[in-house]
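Lecture notes, structural biology module. Today: joint structure prediction for complexes of two components.
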Amino acid sequence: RKEVEQDPGPFNVPEGATVAFNCTYSNSASQSFFWYRQDCRKEPKLLMSVYSSGNEDGRFTAQLNRASQYISLLIRDSKLSDSATYLCVVNWEGNFNKFYFGSGTKLNVKP
Amino acid sequence: GAGVSQSPRYKVTKRGQDVALRCDPISGHVSLYWYRQALGQGPEFLTYFNYEAQQDKSGLPNDRFSAERPEGSISTLTIQRTEQRDSAMYRCASSLYSGEYNEQFFGPGTRLTVL
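The predicted structure, tokenised, for the full assembly:
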């Protein structure tokens, strides 16, 4: 079983739509959580960290559910520029410099 | 400012040859990471440095892979006796510090093809 699992998609949505992705992790001792964005043939870039209380950054909201071991990313009012692959990332208690990446969820926002 | 740079950007080599991949992190960044990314997959952790010390090399696939960061800045990932299965994108990342929520900045990667 992979440490981090994501639905690969693609999620095809029209501009302005709201879309949500989930990511599940296997280790209950996971400590820190992130969403990275990766554009085609580019390097991953941090989108947002996910804190226990959840956090919001403009149109993006991230939530953590430790009991069910998943994190979510909600994108409101999708823009064409949101089209990318979204990578879920976790690290574990006691070794927070070893990061586990999911395979990513591909989002296509259509006009 | 300058981001993380990697060289070469593309490397084609024959099976059995050794290759050295270079990473130049953001100036002042303490932590440096190496990852391997296959097509359609997320980055896979290989190894991590804090300054010049290799803190974790548990992700290196076998003893043909090694990495160093002798002066706490530039790092080299070396693959000896390359095999076709080593073909992948190799990515380097750096972060300002070593901590729970440290942001990693990735380089453009080196695409390695082993013929």
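Point to remember: The mean pLDDT of chain B is 95.
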